[in-house]
Amino acid sequence: MLPRRSCLALPTIARSVRFNSSSSHASATLLPTRQLESEVPPPFTEEEFSSMVIHGRSLYPPLYHPRTHSVPVAQLQFRAYHHQFLELYMHFVGHAAAALGIPISRPIYLPTQRSLWTVPRGPFVHKKSQENFERKVHKRAIKAWDADPEVVDRWVRYIARHAMPGVGLRVTQWKRAPPGIGQQMVDAAVGTTRLGSGADNVKALAEKIVQQEL
């Protein structure tokens, strides 16, 4: 619960200046100040805060919802050659998750992949002169917990539709099966097998297969 911003009226001061032709000094009279309202409105919920239009919200860090049951539902991995684009895109992903009420972790910094190449400058005169090239792949990860699969799918589709050029995204989702799925799988497997076949039928089938092969 976040406290609602109070919309209290500012004190109003009215000045009345009376000019007198016989005196060069002007007397100013101040009216009494209006009292501020003492009533504080009730706090609003996270859903109301997320649905509000607040200008400049993207300038601040996203809101991280607390976990309730710590059940993992998705893991997102980001890769980019420039970490500035990576940080900006992860900031956008965090705000999208906060608006949908998905508890996510803060950005997890993964080891940077570094690749080096050494190539000769030329095939003839500059054969012994070599040039080195380097490429770095910056990686980040975000984990999500305790969210409905439909909400997670909508979140993934939204961030994939507004993907930033130069940033790769890989999503891993975990979906929970309903109770009793094991018994349903066993029943389906038993229904496809042929039970009750005697030894004579199996022997006859084996002899038939052998004759076809010969």
Topology as H/E string?
EEHEHEEHEHH
Spatial strand arrangement across the major sheet: 4-5-3-6
Low-confidence stretches: 1-28
Shape: flat
Structural class: alpha+beta
Proportion of beta-strand residues:
15-25%
Biggest sheet layout = 4 strands, antiparallel
Calculate the terminal CA-CA distance, rounded to whole Å.
Answer: 80 Å
Helix fraction bin: 25-40%
Instruction: Give the mean pLDDT.
Output: 78
Q: Give me the Rg, rounded.
A: 35 Å
| Continuous helix count | 5
Number of strands: 6
Briefly characterize the structure.
The chain has 214 residues and is of the alpha+beta class.
What does this structure look like?
- With 214 residues, this protein is α+β, with helices and mostly antiparallel strands.
- It is built from five helices and six strands.
- Helix content is 30%, strand content 25%.
- A four-stranded antiparallel beta sheet has the order 4-5-3-6. Strands 1-2 form a two-stranded antiparallel ribbon.
- The longest helix is centred in the middle third of the chain and has 18 residues, at 83-100.
- The radius of gyration is 35 Å and the shape is flat.
Element layout with pairings:
Layout: E1 15-18, E2 27-30, H1 46-51, E3 72-80, H2 83-100, E4 108-120, E5 130-145, H3 149-161, E6 167-173, H4 181-192, H5 199-213
Antiparallel strand pairs: 1-2, 3-5, 3-6, 4-5
Helix pairs in contact: 2-3
Key terms:
214 residues, alpha+beta, 4-stranded antiparallel β-sheet, two-stranded antiparallel ribbon, 5 helices, 6 strands
